[in-house]
Amino acid sequence: MSKIKKQQNSNVIVDYEQSDDAAVIDIGNDKYLVQTVDFFSPIVDDPFTFGQIAAANSLSDIYAMGAKPLFALNIVGFPNKELSNDILAEILNGGASLANKAGIPIVGGHSVDDSEIKYGLVVTGEVKKNELIKNSNAKDGDLLLLTKPLGTGILYNALKKGLASTDDFYQAIESMVELNKEIGSSLNKFNVHAATDVTGYGLIGHLYEMCKSSNVSAEIETNKVHFFNNVEQFAKKGAVPGGTGRNLEFYSKHIKFADSIKNHQKLMLADAQTSGGLLISLSEKDAHSLSSFYKERSIGSLQIIGKFTSSKNPKITINS
Questions:
Q1: CB–CB of 71/107 below 8 Å?
Q2: Position 319 pLDDT exceeds 70
Q3: How many Cβ atoms from other residues are within 10 Å of residue 46's Cβ?
């Protein structure tokens, strides 16, 4: 995108230069339009479940910005000559079921004949101007919260390698089909300063983008970060996706790891996620209020995993 000549438009509030979760456009009447697109190849065998995961993943960008989704469009790649259209119908039905949970219609879309299945959504949402949450407003002294366990990439890779069972991966599936709707709708109630969702760049990648955009640094306590069961076991055995390894290689120059942290633990923190949780920055008082709110209602796996500090190099310090 850096090689594309940018067109200036005063109505564009957030675009690709901010490395945020979605584009934001001023449409007047005290509202912003928020739009995102995401799609990928299957990570589960069941087409309906794949559709659910892809839809939840796409919707997550809207929730991370404190916005309300309005409608969605399907985006599909499908090998029409090789596979039955019944499989495609199941994928689309899975996406529709999650859109229904989000309270929005899927009003159309576009498909192409492709050698590999791909599916996702273009999602359009809206937010009041004073309620927009970006990844660029984390503050020195804020606590850092994570709303889902990590390890979807490692678990899927372990399953492909025959190291994990379907039971091992089921916990990740349950998490990936879970919408970030409830936490997204709570962000403004608890004065959240910044948020982003944890997906392909892993925890360390998305945290780095938040630190860079906000001009702060962060300290993480590894023992407070939740992972799915057996993720460490499979990471030790080398069940690590290529994207996870590339994340660690790319972002390591911005991170100071404690000497006691082993390489497989670094890879766990860099694991590329699908339909992950939200990474949230807010004051210590509000962080504890939000945490208590969720524990009282037994919602999700929200954990306080660290804090933001004044800007320094390297940007991220990870303690054991």
A1: yes
A2: yes
A3: 14
CA-based Rg of the chain, rounded to a whole angstrom?
A: 19
Place of tokens 């190849």: 41
d(CA 287, CA 276): 20
How far is 264 from 254, CA to CA, in rounded Å? 18
Please give the Cα distance from 175 to 49 (Å, whole number).
12
Domain span holding position 47: 12-131
Look at residues 85, 102, 131 and tell me which one is the last residue of a structural domain: 131
For 151, residues 6+ apart whose C-beta sits below 8 A from its C-beta are 172, 227, 228, 231, 268, 271
Co-location of 251 and 209 in the same domain: yes
Residue showing tokens 């990474």: 279
Q: Give the residue from 7, 102, 26, 114 showing the smallest Cα distance to 61.
A: 102
Please check the confidence at residue 211 and state whether its pLDDT lies above 60: yes
The reply to whether 123 and 153 lie within a common domain is no
Total domain count, the chain: 2
**Has residue 300 been placed in a domain?**
yes
152 and 49 together in one domain = no
CA atoms of 233 and 294, how far apart (whole Å):
29
> What's the CA angle centered on 16, arms 189 and 183, to 5 degrees?
20
Q: How confident is the model at residue 61 (pLDDT cuts 50, 70, 90)?
A: very high
CATH code assigned at 277: 3.90.650.10
Highest mean pLDDT: which of 48-52, 163-167, 295-299? 48-52
Residue partners of 52: CB distance under 8 A and separation at least 6 = 94, 95, 97, 98, 176, 177
